[in-house]
Amino acid sequence: MRQWVEKARQGDAEAFAQLMAHCRGMAYAVSYDMLKDVHLAEDAVQEAFLEAYLNLQKLSEPAAFPGWFRTIVVRQCQRTLRRKRHPLLPLDEALQGLQNEPGAADILERKEAEQVLQSSVAALSAKLRVPVQLFYFYGYSLQEISGYLGTPVQTLKKRLHDARQKLKGTLPVADLASVFNLLYEGGGKMLHIVNGDVVGNMLKHGIVQGEVLVWREIYSSGPVFADLSGSRERAERARVLEATLGIPAGEYMTSCEEQERKLREYAQYDEVVLWFEHDLFDQSMLAYLLHWFKGQKLGRTKLSLLCIGEFPGIERFHGLGQLTPAQLGTLSGTWRTIGRPEIELGSELWQAYASPDPTRMADLLDQKNAELAASGLPFASEAFRTHLMRLPSVHNGLGIVEQATFDALASGAHTPLELFRQVTDTLHVLGMGDLEYWKVLRALTAGEHPLLHIEGVEGYTDFRQIPEFLNRRVAATALGQQVQEGAADRVLVQGIDEWYGGLHLQGREVPWRWDTEAEQLVPQLNTQ
């Protein structure tokens, strides 16, 4: 927007036209909320654009344009209110005209849905009503609305949540989603893609309209490749996941084929909604799907995203699976349409993640941090930067997960269950499950030079077969204590065989480590 403002101030008519197109919906929402008449609102918006154009040189800071323009819109509306008013045109008729959908008035279900929703929204207070209109009716992002209304994003989130709660008093959750779907998608067929069976099962019980596809993958573990559709790549991934996580290779291959067959049917849906969270487990999954969609022709299919990292009333939000059906229902309809910019960014993230060169990810996060933060992928930077921290450190060869394990031991956690809970709570940004953590724990206890000892596990290769494993006592060995103190190096004494996305580290000499203090990758020049 800054570029449009700067060019418009230099007399670029096309740039000002882009500004008008971008801000028209926000201006109209505020104008109609004050004037309650579509014609008067349109006139006020046009007058506001003219006044803004004539006074653009007076705007000292281009970034302040949204709030400055809103002031002009409000002033124009106040002038209109002082004049003689014309008969009012109801908003539902105005929306039909704006949407330009022939025959909509003849569809009884749609008409009733519009009336119910419009009357419910109209009954909200102004501080709730305007954000709802801008966010849902006109599709502006929270950042855009914040700049226009001068209201902090967190406050807007709270107001939208409060508005949804009030609307639920008028409409059941499923009906609310249905009304929005009828209004904006024409009742189109929808596919919801989620990351877990718990969430998937809740969504299937009336929270959303359409079909639900549970995407079963753990891209945060095992080898990943830019193209996972190849038989060789998939077979290698299946082999490693079976060896390290205990997932049967045959079951994994079958599951992949079934879910990707369903994904390839995307064209039969009017909208595909991606439900994901803030952690690496989900962000890597989201990046993969966006990379996949980049290679498709979406045609009439709209791609939408619901991605959250917090929820009102939950102090430590780990994921959508924490929510009750009622809480999950409040998110229905809050997804946002994403376009080529997000799809391109997601594809870049996946290709960097799948690369054997970790500097691709580090450079991408440095170069596009601001772009990611302002996009529909605001959690990607933290998730993938934490991914890089999983690499062995320059200090003692422990990655962030292994280091957190020793820290948890030092703080009083002494069983696998206690360690799992404390480590995953500390590193919730990884979204690590029990299978992934047992793999880490097994590596620390294995070999001729173990760093940890678990009581009574000798002779077992699979922790799941050990009776009362979760409550066995865990302690650091003498060597483990040396590593913890930095007097010995885990990689040098134990060796390593681990995949970090597309990077495979093996042996006692590795090409890359992570410098915790400098927070950057460090190449190891002594490796061959």
Automatic annotation (TrEMBL):
<keyword id="KW-0805">Transcription regulation</keyword>
<dbReference type="InterPro" id="IPR007627">
    <property type="entry name" value="RNA_pol_sigma70_r2"/>
</dbReference>
<dbReference type="GO" id="GO:0003677">
    <property type="term" value="F:DNA binding"/>
</dbReference>
<dbReference type="Pfam" id="PF08281">
    <property type="entry name" value="Sigma70_r4_2"/>
</dbReference>
<keyword id="KW-0240">DNA-directed RNA polymerase</keyword>
<dbReference type="Pfam" id="PF08874">
    <property type="entry name" value="DUF1835"/>
</dbReference>
<dbReference type="InterPro" id="IPR014973">
    <property type="entry name" value="DUF1835"/>
</dbReference>
<keyword id="KW-0731">Sigma factor</keyword>
<comment type="similarity">
    <text>Belongs to the sigma-70 factor family. ECF subfamily.</text>
</comment>
<dbReference type="GO" id="GO:0016987">
    <property type="term" value="F:sigma factor activity"/>
</dbReference>
<dbReference type="Pfam" id="PF04542">
    <property type="entry name" value="Sigma70_r2"/>
</dbReference>
<dbReference type="InterPro" id="IPR013325">
    <property type="entry name" value="RNA_pol_sigma_r2"/>
</dbReference>
<dbReference type="GO" id="GO:0000428">
    <property type="term" value="C:DNA-directed RNA polymerase complex"/>
</dbReference>
<dbReference type="GO" id="GO:0006352">
    <property type="term" value="P:DNA-templated transcription initiation"/>
</dbReference>
<keyword id="KW-0804">Transcription</keyword>
<feature type="domain" description="RNA polymerase sigma factor 70 region 4 type 2">
    <location>
        <begin position="117"/>
        <end position="167"/>
    </location>
</feature>
<feature type="domain" description="RNA polymerase sigma-70 region 2">
    <location>
        <begin position="20"/>
        <end position="85"/>
    </location>
</feature>
<dbReference type="InterPro" id="IPR013249">
    <property type="entry name" value="RNA_pol_sigma70_r4_t2"/>
</dbReference>
<dbReference type="InterPro" id="IPR036388">
    <property type="entry name" value="WH-like_DNA-bd_sf"/>
</dbReference>
<feature type="domain" description="DUF1835">
    <location>
        <begin position="191"/>
        <end position="297"/>
    </location>
</feature>
<dbReference type="InterPro" id="IPR013324">
    <property type="entry name" value="RNA_pol_sigma_r3/r4-like"/>
</dbReference>
<dbReference type="InterPro" id="IPR039425">
    <property type="entry name" value="RNA_pol_sigma-70-like"/>
</dbReference>
<dbReference type="InterPro" id="IPR014284">
    <property type="entry name" value="RNA_pol_sigma-70_dom"/>
</dbReference>
<protein>
    <submittedName>
        <fullName>DNA-directed RNA polymerase subunit sigma</fullName>
    </submittedName>
</protein>
